[in-house]
Design a protein that fits this description.
The complex is a heterodimer of chains A (about 375) and B (about 325). Chain A contains 13 helices and 8 strands. Chain A is of the alpha/beta class and about 375 residues long. Chain A folds into 2 domains: about 10-320, 3-Layer(aba) Sandwich (Rossmann fold); about 330-373, no CATH class. In chain A, helix 1 packs antiparallel against helix 10 (about 285-295) and helix 4 crosses helix 11 (about 300-320). Chain A is globular. Chain B has about 325 residues and is an alpha/beta fold. Chain B folds into 2 domains: about 1-180, 3-Layer(aba) Sandwich (Rossmann fold); about 195-325, Rossmann fold. Chain B is built from 12 helices and 14 strands. Chain B has helices spanning about 5-20, 45, 60-70, 85-95, 100-105, 135, 150-160, 210-225, 245-255, 270-280, 300-310, 310-325, and strands spanning about 1-5, 25, 50-55, 75-80, 115-120, 145, 165-170, 180, 195-200, 205-210, 230-235, 240, 255-260, 290. Chain B has a 7-stranded mixed β-sheet with strand order 3-2-4-5-7-6-12, sandwiched between helices. Chain B is globular and about 60 Å long. The termini of chain B are far apart. Classes of the chains: A alpha/beta (about 375), B alpha/beta (about 325). At the A-B interface, helix 12 and helix 13 of A face helix 3, helix 11 and helix 12 of B.
């Protein structure tokens, strides 16, 4: 018997807008001028928010924060391609997705400010809460997609994860279920090149992350993650495919984390200035700006106005956050079960009665320790 | 040397890497980054990438491959970045690491150390602050160690790394950089399974471990200002196997006992201590054993974490309750 080649695979990469803001007209998604400006505005808002959040963290006004600097196109472009009935399953770096889908800024600040109410999104925003354990949420997205499929709903699910997340068994199991059940799901990997200190090369020997889909029997595409038009188009196409019952897609958004992993990280320990500079030239906002300016869709006066509006929105979010009354200590007992078991209710009563004996209900522990890395 | 717990642990790892050529350190960010808390700082530079290994981000694989390494002549020291991320590797720990000696009737063993920071008090995000040691204590075949100070941390980790069986080594986050003390420069071991009576007393035995040892100490110091109780303090250090003789002889002397744990109340280690103390010392007891614990709730995010964590006030209340009975 001869050795016969029985299968042949390729991996594609989608890029529409280059680093100089030049677009491939053939691939350009059909967007109206206001939609183009919306993309620009959301990315600008996210960047201003990010900058503010880093300052708030340094001033001790919020806790540890994970910046999405440099990755604005990934979350904004993908969320922009979804319908309100679709569901998203974020990691801790998808603030842009939360904003585009309608989550108020104050909620995101509350979350990073250590206030659980930040995860209590309004019922008209179809986002699952942030999942911190890496690679855990793609499974939830696939399960949600299977539920939509069984209930014959016109909704799809999107599971986000990072390059580090592709090493977790759960992520690969999610891909497998997605393929086997042809679930209407988009699995989005924000490949930002680092899992804290570890470069992508330490996560997989594979040339691309996109190709992992091939092993599970569906399509994977690498997308320039700093090109919001490519991100938008790839997500829209994958969403249409899922809606048409043609199964899942893996999208690898090839991007770069310009900031530290979180405010507790120091990325100068493991990467070079030269590398950062190289990626700074690929800035996702800059290239959309150049394109929109060249097209006459955006002009300097309008840009100033957009920036001023974004600053005002972020400032409003910060003041809403800081004027929010503190969460009630008893809150930690109230959401564990639909009906609180009697023994837990007793613990709660004892806790509150102990608290009432403490001066001013002051938080009785002082924090020592190193701060969170 | 003057060292905090991070430096003492780093020193223990460095000395053992030097003296045991079969020792390997592996985990996420343990190499070039030196661990997110810097416990493995500088070790990869000194011992190379074959001894201090940055792995892909996969806890199950870190622990699972460590089991294979351990069975075939290496002494892996795996770091899991936070104890809240141990669960993907939990299956490997309970289904295999804890069982391989028993399953193979002693032919294979698993001399593996899993290090992981645990506990609250540092304003961290979700899953970074829990105290779930009971899950591991409850698993037959595992040993569980929690140091409360730099000197013990170094000696206990050295013992763990030399132990013929799997050891889960929990490091209290809140203590990592809380204080420095004089730590011996040379290599030394503190045997696993030995508690430490840190203060002698006749009226009450106060049992704690990890970060709660310092909370308990604070309570004892505060209460000494006005109330003349003679309190015996026990730092358990090893939670499995536990040093029952030290506990029982102390209770037989004092007749009163308070146990302090950061973990949730139900089925925490305090429950087991109370049961054994009652079984063994019923006629010595002058008061019901008291416990101060976290609640049966999810560890809240940081705005409420200080309400959750046991504090000196709650420990004092329990001491007074036992004394007043």
């Amino acid at each position: 018997m001869p050795l016969t080649k029985i299968a042949d695979f390729g991996v594609s990469r989608l890029s529409i807008l280059d680093e100089n803001g030049k677009a491939d007209e053939k691939l350009l998604p059909k967007l109206t001028n206001p939609q183009f400006l919306d993309l620009f505005t959301w990315m600008t808002l996210l960047r201003i928010f990010d900058d503010k959040a880093l300052k708030l963290q340094r001033q001790g006004r919020i806790g540890t924060y994970a910046s999405s600097l440099g990755q604005e196109a990934c979350t904004v472009g993908s969320a922009f391609a979804l319908k309100p009935q679709d569901w998203t399953f974020p990691t801790f770096r998808e603030h842009g997705m939360f904003f585009v889908r309608g989550t108020p800024i104050v909620k995101v600040l509350q979350y990073w400010g250590g206030d659980e109410r930040g995860s209590q999104s309004t019922s008209d925003v179809n986002c699952f809460p942030v999942s911190i354990p890496v690679g855990s949420q793609p499974l939830h997205a696939v399960g949600c997609a299977m539920a939509m499929q069984l209930k014959k709903k016109d909704a799809i699910a999107v599971g986000y994860f990072g390059d580090g997340g592709t090493s977790e068994g759960d992520t690969l199991e999610a891909m497998n279920f997605a393929g086997v059940f042809q679930a209407p799901v988009i699995l989005i990997c924000q490949n930002n090149q680092y899992a804290i200190s570890e470069p992508r090369s330490l996560q997989t020997r594979a040339q691309t992350i996109a190709q992992k889909a091939i092993a599970f029997g569906f399509e994977g595409i690498q997308v320039d993650g700093n090109d919001v038009l490519a991100v938008y188009k790839a997500t829209l196409d994958a969403a249409e495919k899922a809606r048409a019952g043609k199964g899942p897609t893996l999208l690898e958004f090839f991007t770069y984390r310009m900031g530290d992993h979180t405010t507790a990280d120091d990325s100068t320990r493991y990467r070079t200035k030269e590398e950062l500079e190289m990626w700074r030239k690929k800035d996702p906002i800059l290239r959309l700006r150049m394109y929109l300016m060249a097209q006459g869709i955006l002009f300097p006066q309008m840009e100033e106005k957009i920036i001023a509006e974004c600053v005002a929105l972020v400032e409003k979010g910060v003041s809403d956050y800081e004027n929010m009354p503190a969460p009630q200590p008893s809150d930690m007992f109230d959401y564990l079960y639909k009906e609180m078991p009697p023994a837990l209710a007793e613990q709660k009563r004892n806790f509150l009665s102990f608290l009432s004996t403490q001066k001013n209900n002051a938080q009785p522990n002082k924090t020592e320790g190193p701060g969170f890395p | 040397m003057k060292a905090n717990m991070v430096q003492a642990l780093n020193n223990a790892l460095a000395l053992e890497l030097e003296s045991n050529p079969n020792l390997v350190v592996l985990g996420e960010d343990v190499g070039i980054d030196g661990g997110v808390f810097r416990v493995t700082d500088g070790l990869q530079t000194k011992f190379g990438k074959n001894r201090v290994i940055d792995t892909p981000l996969a806890e199950s694989a870190i622990i699972g491959t460590s089991i294979g390494m351990a069975a075939f002549g290496l002494n892996p020291v795996a770091e899991v970045q936070f104890s809240g991320f141990l669960y993907p590797g939990f299956d490997q720990l309970i289904s295999h690491a804890a069982r391989i000696r028993n399953r193979s009737r002693g032919r294979f063993s698993c001399p593996l150390t899993v290090r992981s920071p645990y506990g609250g008090g540092i304003k961290a995000p979700e899953h970074h602050s829990e105290s779930m040691e009971a899950l591991f204590i409850h698993t037959p075949g595992l040993k569980v160690v929690v140091p409360s100070n730099p000197t013990d941390a170094k000696g206990l980790l050295t013992s763990a790394m030399r132990d013929p069986d799997p050891v889960v080594f929990f490091e209290p986050l809140r203590v990592y950089r809380a204080f420095r003390e004089e730590v011996p420069d040379e290599q030394y071991t503190i045997p696993l399974g030995q508690a430490k009576v840190t203060q002698q007393g006749n009226d009450l035995t106060l049992i704690s471990w990890g970060s709660m040892f310092r909370t308990s100490m604070e309570a004892v110091q505060q209460i000494a200002e006005n109330e003349k109780y003679s309190i015996e303090m026990i730092d358990l250090r090893t939670l499995s196997p536990i040093d029952w003789p030290t506990i029982h002889s102390s209770i037989q002397k004092t007749g009163r006992c308070v146990v302090v744990q950061e973990a949730p109340l139900t089925l925490g280690l305090a429950s087991e201590i109370m049961a054994r103390v009652m079984e063994k010392n019923f006629l010595h007891l002058k008061a019901p054993v008291q416990r101060v614990t976290g609640f049966d709730t999810i560890m809240p995010l940081y705005k409420l974490e200080n309400y959750y964590l046991p504090n000196a006030e709650r420990v004092k209340e329990a001491i007074r309750k036992a004394m007043a009975f």
